[in-house]
Structures are given as structure tokens and as C-alpha cells.
Specification:
608 residues, Rossmann fold, 18 helices, Glutamine Phosphoribosylpyrophosphate, subunit 1, domain 1, carbohydrate derivative binding, binds fructose -6-phosphate, alpha/beta
Length: 608
């Protein structure tokens, strides 16, 4: 949610800011801006360079590449609007009355209205409607020659979330950084330092980063940096190639094609087939505590919450631990009743989702054991949970989450075996699950072979305006995921509902213009799904089925079928979701949408 990049060093800052910002555009893309200190023409000599524009960076690429901007200190921002409309004046960097202090901000200042009112009474003149501008005026108010000191005083007055990078013309040769509940990292290069909200922006310059912690302030200078306390260096594990499109038209398609790899990466070195168990090194330190746990609360948002719902079914059926799922934005406000034998499991690709992190803080306050299932190494969630398992899905750039979902499902399946084997799960059952898990990457590759067929279906169905997605048991959450994916990138109306729920109201909408995608693998609820499909067909609704290979009968009752290979019922979501991701992708691409950057959305939702 919003991207920040900053540079200080011997090179020209502008090209570095520009390429970093392009890599961060998936975090927000309604407007963008740059501030570079000590620039030469086309800005007036010795006058800093400030540039802001509404729209996507890619649309202004021609204009930007013609700019010659000198200067080795700069900050840049790509915005996902929270407060204030999408206008140039609301774009970052923001600045104070005297145009001395320039700032980029990721997050939200919750008490900005009262601060603004007070500052206006004191004579400050605001230009934008953006909450972030209050930070500039507060820093101006407290500035007494030392920028970090003014930032420190400012942050004492604000409530909310922030990752900020600030430059002052009156205390030049430094960038001051600070963070609270919004990601911010410091990249350490040779004779240069970078700041970014995401490793993707610094990876071409350095792999050595320091993740700032909440309430920390750092100062970077051309030749050194300091933070208010000692911090460990972390190695970025992604390669640049992984963060690029590799010839695919969109990141989303590339990432769907990497879904088999995401499963493979999650399980690599972790399955112990002979012992019917798994090795999850990240849980070693709490292994004994986990034996005492008799209730699990899984917390996540959006797509990750659907993975958590599949996890709930797995954990109850095979580990026999009562489990429930809460979405992050609800958990902290519903006054949950928990005890010392409850554990919280937090599922998040980014590890930075504000709602999930807020729930994590709430659970920690209650003294509950917390576990993270996270993709991003060193993310806030990874740092703040007691223990956890990385999904190792690699960088996910498209806003719509795809391969990370597969990593989450594979990890939840392994966690089920881990906890199950600590309890009553028999060796033979453990062996069965892990050996089926080992086969999944190959089976997922088989599903991807249907891509051309799914593209044809997308052509056939793309002009419908409404869709149902239905499934039962393990595939009920997959119906929700299929619907979310379709609506977020194609802007068509889609809803996911448990197959058995249709007749309780939703069926009223079915007619020949309302197709349904029915996930009906040959499993324990197959017959029930067939009844639900028949209810739809009786009302004239077109049906696309996702069914198990070899099921020829289904063809007699539905309009179209996509086949997936057979696997254990609890693992079918990892196969059934792949055609749904492909279907959404092709529909959106055929409709001509910006698939990787759907309107109104952004990756990593770091505001509540
Ligand atoms: C949907 C999507 C979102 C995220 C949600 C949680 O395609 O990407 O629903 O799943 O915002 O994000 P993470 O997993 O980063 O916590």
C-alpha cells in the first residue's frame, strides 16, 4: 500500500528512484512523485527537483526518461489513495510552508484532522487534502537545525501508521526514516544507502538490508547511517529474475504458472515420508508448547483468509484440534475469549497486512502463543510472531495473490501433519498425506496444461456480468477465492458460496445469464454437489464444472468441464484453485484490463 524509495550516495539519485518506483508500482499506482536535492537543469540550477503526476509511471515513461536530474539525494513515492482524492497536489512528496522539508509517507495518520486544525490556527498553510502533509508542517514547527530531532518530536504527536522518508534543505546530506506498522527497510550498498518499503526496490543495488522496527528512527548519509539501536543485517533471498516477468505478458500469469513451484518450494526438505511426518524448523522452539494447545484461531485477510479456512478443515479433520478462522479486521473488535491453551496462526503473504498485524498484537497482549505463516522473510509478522513457517513462494508482484495461496495451503497441510502427529494421527495417515503432498507439484503441472482450454472458456464466458462459484467442504473456501479473484481483476460481479447454501436464498438469482463455476471433485461431498448443480440447471443457469479426471458422467449435466487429477480430498484445493486463477486471468486479460494493477487496489494493505 503505497511504495517508498529513497537514495543517498555517489550516483545520480533520479534513475535509481525511477527504477525502484517502477518495481514498487504494484503497491499503489494512482499517482507518483519525486524529490531530488541539488538538481541541475531542467530545474533551475541548484534548485531541488520536485515532480508529481497523476496516473501510472508506465504512462509517463517517455516524459520521465527525458528528464535530466542531477543530485545524489532523493525520495520517491507511488500512491494508493487513502485520504484525499487522486490529484497531483495530493501526490507525494509533500512539503511544508517554506518548501524546506520534503516527505514521502506510507500509511495513515488517524488524528490528522485535529493536528491540521491546530497547525492552521498557528498559521500553517496547507496545500493538499492528504493526511501526510501534517507531518511536514509538524516537522517544520519543531525544526531547529536537526532534522531527526524534529522528526522525533513530530512522531510523538501522531496516531496511526507510517513509514516515512524525509529530506530537509536546511539539514541536507541526510535522509531521515521512521516507521510504525508500515514496512520500511534500509538497503546498505557500497558508498550508497537506499530506503524502501519493499525489497523489490533495492534488489538491483544490494542484498544487505536492515528491516526497521516500529518506533525506530534512522538517519542515512552519503557515507554512513545510524539507527537508534543495533540491528542485524538480513540477506534478501529473492533473485532479480524472480521479480521479473520472464516473457509473460503479466506478472499474474507468470505467478500462476509458478504455482507448482510454489508447492514444491514450500515442501522442499520438509517432508519425512517414512516417519509420516514433517520437519518444520521454525516450530522447533515451541514444539513442546504446541502439544498443550487445544484450540486454534487462524487470522488472515482476503485470499489468505480462504487458505486459512481450508486450514481450519484440515486441522479439525486430521489434527483433531478445534479451529476457527477470523478475518484480521474483525478479530480485535469482537472481544474474543481465549485461554492459555489457545494458539493464533497468522497467514499472510506480505506479513505486513495491517489488519492481520493488529490482530496479532491483540493476541500477544492476551499472552497467547502466536505462529506465522508468511512469505516475506523478515516482515513484521515474521518478526512479531513467537514462531512460524515461511512459505518460500518467492516474490509475488501482481496485486492479486495466486502462487502465495498455494504456498499457504501446502504449509497448512504440513502444519496439520505436524500437529496431528503430536496427537492421535496414525503413522499410516501421516505417511499418506506426506506422500500425496510430495506428488502435488507434478499434478499441479498437469492442471496448467489445460491453460489453452481455460482461455477458450474465458472467451465464451467473458461477456456475462455475474457469476456464482460454489464448492463444499475443502472446496467451499476455494469457491470464495475463485469469486474474489474474478471480481478483483475483471470487475465482473462474482460471489462464492458453499454449495449447500444456494437453496437458502441465492438460487433466486439463477437464470440463463448467471453462470456458475462448480468445484466438484470426486470426494466425500461429490453427490451433494451434483444435487446443487442440478438445482442450478433446472433454473437454466449455465455451469462450468471443475471435476476429477475420468468423471465422464458430469459432462451429461453441465455445460463445460475442466478436469483436475485425483489426490487426497484435503489436498484438492491446491489443484482445483489453479483453473480458477487461470479463468480469472484470461477473462480480465481478454476484457483488456490492467491485470497486475487492478483499479482501486494495491498489494500489501498496510492501513486498517
Ligand atoms: C486477493 C489478495 C488479497 C490479499 C489480502 C491479504 O487476491 O491478494 O485479498 O490476500 O490483502 O494479504 P496478505 O496475504 O499479504 O496478508
Amino acid at each position: 500500500m503505497c511504495g517508498i524509495v529513497g537514495y543517498i550516495g555517489k550516483k545520480l539519485a533520479f534513475p535509481i528512484l525511477l527504477s525502484g518506483l517502477k518495481r514498487l508500482e504494484y503497491r499503489g499506482y494512482d499517482s507518483f512523485g519525486f524529490f531530488v536535492l541539488d538538481s541541475n537543469p531542467p530545474a533551475t540550477p541548484n534548485k531541488p527537483f520536485l515532480f508529481k503526476k497523476v496516473g501510472k509511471i508506465s504512462e509517463a515513461e517517455g516524459e520521465l526518461s527525458n528528464l535530466k536530474v542531477d543530485g545524489g539525494i532523493g525520495i520517491a513515492h507511488t500512491r494508493w489513495a487513502t485520504t484525499g482524492a487522486v490529484t497531483e497536489v495530493n501526490a507525494h512528496p509533500h512539503f511544508d510552508c517554506r518548501e524546506d522539508i520534503f516527505l514521502v509517507h506510507n500509511g495513515i495518520i488517524e488524528n490528522y484532522r485535529e493536528i491540521k486544525e491546530k497547525l492552521e490556527k498557528e498559521g500553517h498553510k496547507f496545500r493538499s487534502q492528504c493526511d501526510s502533509e501534517v507531518l511536514c508542517h509538524l516537522i517544520e514547527k519543531y525544526f531547529n537545525g536537526n532534522l531527526e530531532e524534529a522528526v522525533r518530536k513530530t512522531l510523538k504527536e501522531v496516531r496511526g501508521a507510517y513509514g516515512i522518508a524525509v529530506i530537509s534543505k536546511k539539514d541536507p546530506q541526510k535522509i531521515v526514516l521512521a516507521k510504525l506498522s508500515s514496512p520500511l527497510l534500509l538497503g546498505i550498498g557500497e558508498d550508497e544507502f537506499l530506503v524502501a518499503s519493499d525489497p523489490a526496490a533495492v534488489i538491483t543495488h544490494t542484498r544487505q538490508v536492515i528491516n526497521l522496527d516500529d518506533n525506530e528512527i534512522a538517519v542515512i548519509k552519503p557515507d554512513n547511517f545510524f539507527i537508534l539501536k543495533e540491528k542485524p543485517l538480513v540477506q534478501i533471498e529473492w533473485t532479480l529474475e524472480e521479480a521479473e516477468k520472464k516473457g509473460y505478458p503479466h506478472f499474474m500469469l507468470k505467478e500462476i504458472m509458478e504455482e507448482p513451484e510454489a508447492i514444491e518450494n514450500a515442501i522442499r526438505g520438509r517432508l519425512m515420508i517414512e516417519e509420516g511426518s514433517v520437519k518444520l524448523g521454525g516450530l522447533d522452539s515451541i514444539s513442546e508448547k504446541l502439544r498443550e494447545i487445544n484450540r486454534l484461531i487462524l487470522v488472515a485477510c482476503g485470499t489468505a483468509s480462504f487458505a486459512a479456512r481450508v486450514g481450519e478443515y484440515m486441522l479439525e479433520e486430521y489434527a483433531e484440534i478445534p479451529a476457527e478462522v477470523d478475518i484480521g479486521s474483525e478479530f480485535r473488535y469482537r472481544k474474543p475469549v481465549v485461554d492459555k491453551n489457545t494458539a493464533g496462526i497468522f497467514v499472510s503473504q506480505s506479513g505486513e497486512t495491517a489488519d492481520t498485524l493488529a490482530a496479532l498484537k491483540e493476541m500477544k497482549q492476551k499472552g497467547i502463543l502466536t505462529l506465522g505463516i508468511t512469505n516475506v522473510v523478515g516482515s513484521a509478522q515474521a518478526r512479531e510472531t513467537d514462531a512460524g513457517v515461511y512459505t518460500r513462494s518467492g516474490p509475488e508482484i501482481a496485486v492479486a495473490s495466486t502462487k502465495a495461496f498455494l504456498g499457504q495451503l501446502a504449509t497448512l497441510a504440513m502444519l496439520t501433519v505436524y500437529l496431528g502427529r503430536q496427537r492421535e494421527m496414525a503413522l499410516v495417515m501421516g505417511k499418506r498425506i506426506v506422500s500425496e503432498l510430495a506428488k502435488l507439484p507434478e499434478l499441479a503441472k498437469d492442471v496448467l496444461k489445460s491453460a489453452p482450454e481455460i482461455e477458450k472458456l474465458a472467451k465464451k464466458y467473458k461477456d456475462y456480468k455475474n457469476f456464482w462459484f460454489i464448492g463444499r467442504k475443502y472446496n467451499a473456501p476455494i469457491a470464495s477465492e475463485g469469486a474474489l479473484k474474478l471480481k478483483e481483476i475483471s470487475y465482473l460481479h462474482a460471489e462464492g458460496v458453499a454449495g449447500g447454501e444456494l437453496k437458502h436464498g441465492s438460487l433466486a438469482l439463477i437464470d440463463e445469464n448467471f453462470p456458475t463455476v462448480a468445484i466438484c471433485p470426486s470426494d466425500s461431498v461429490y453427490e451433494k454437489m451434483v444435487s446443487n448443480i442440478q438445482e442450478i440447471k433446472a433454473r437454466g443457469g449455465p455451469v462450468i464444472a471443475v471435476a476429477t479426471e475420468g468423471n465422464e458422467d458430469i459432462k451429461k449435466i453441465v455445460d463445460d468441464v475442466i478436469y483436475i487429477p485425483k489426490t487426497l480430498e484435503m489436498l484438492t484445493p491446491m489443484l482445483s484453485v489453479i483453473p480458477l486463477h487461470l479463468f480469472s486471468y484470461y477473462v480480465a486479460a481478454l476484457l483488456g484490463h490492467d491485470v497486475d494493477r487492478p483499479k482501486n487496489l494495491a498489494k500489501s494493505v498496510t492501513v486498517e
